[in-house]
Description:
The radius of gyration is 21 Å and the shape is elongated. It has helices at 11-19, 29-40, 54-63, 124-127, 136-149, 172-182, 203-212, 227-233, 242-250, 274-283, 309-321, 342-348, and strands at residues 4-5, 64-65, 69-76, 82-88, 93-100, 106-109, 113-115, 130-133, 159-162, 195-199, 217-221, 260-266, 289-295, 325-329. It is built from twelve helices and 14 strands. By secondary structure, it is of the alpha/beta class. The protein has two domains: 4-65, Orthogonal Bundle (DNA polymerase, domain 1), CATH 1.10.150; 69-336, TIM Barrel (Alpha-Beta Barrel). Iron/sulfur cluster (SF4) binds next to helix 4.
Amino acid sequence: MSKKNIYSFTQEELIKELVENPIKQFPSFRAKQIYHWLYTKYEDDFSKMENLPKELREFLKDNYTSNAVEIARKEESSDGSVKYLFKTLDNLTYEAVFLKMKEDKFTFCLSSQIGCKVGCSFCLTAKGGFVRNLSIGEMVYQVVAIKKDQNIPSNKAVNIVYMGMGEPLDNLESVKGCISILSELDGLSISARRQTISTSGIAPKIKKLGALNLGVQLAISLHAVDDKLRTELMPINKAYNIQAIIDEVRTFPIDSRKHVMFEYLMIDGLNDGLESAKKLVALLNKIKAKVNLIYFNPHEGSIYKRPSKEKVEAFREFLLKKGLLCTIRESKGLDISAACGQLREKELHN
Ligand code: SF4
């Protein structure tokens, strides 16, 4: 029987594993101790979990794995961002990015799938096609491994964005499980409010996510204000066009203190003019929206170009004047393989 990934259980589920397993039963309080080792001390060696009885340590070793994923490679940027490449037991790879924001704030950008079905034309991950969904444990481990590697104490609040490889709403089961585990108070204690699901805009799945009422934040990769360009950039727009997405966003349960984030990838000469800015303002009318402008980060072979700083700033100024919140995402990690899928690509061709 294959071993279960120890990072795939909420504390309540872990209690069940200990109390109800047919081999040997252990008291429920042991789950809290195991959680403490895994998520506070970042200890993944069961034999070193000293306050657990030997019998339990052996039970864990025989039935669970804590090393289903390992860091295969990492690249550090001069601005402190670090890109991690993880390798799974079946020898597949996926990426996560550690971003150092202002004032000692950290954001972790997590993957939800190996490859992706959505097929955005600007995305390197899309080029390799879809391989498989990440499991809950494989997703959670990204956070544990980065916190451990960066020496970030367990109780330090960090932000999570599900914006790495894959479309998170295409793997909602694992994403949901990951959100629950990350928010466990005896574990990493990252509240759902600090976790943002970023989607390419699969309208019926936005509805499904809203119905789950997980308390997470929502980000939409909009990138264009007319369907023709959006379909060119994101073919999924043929199935769910801009209006269908906006209609769904209007009914999504949003935390009163938060906004729906609209990601807008600025591409030179394509969507970076004031005409586009005007349309964007009209489109987001009466939505509690925040726009995040992102410089396109060109990779080898890409047909798109990075826009000028002046154009991006003029775009932002226009939105601000019209009363829309707007930020420009700092281009973190420009000197590393920061675009989604680049580090994996390098590993595959080594
Ligand atoms: S940008 Fe995101 S949704 Fe689009 S293909 Fe790449 S990984 Fe998938």
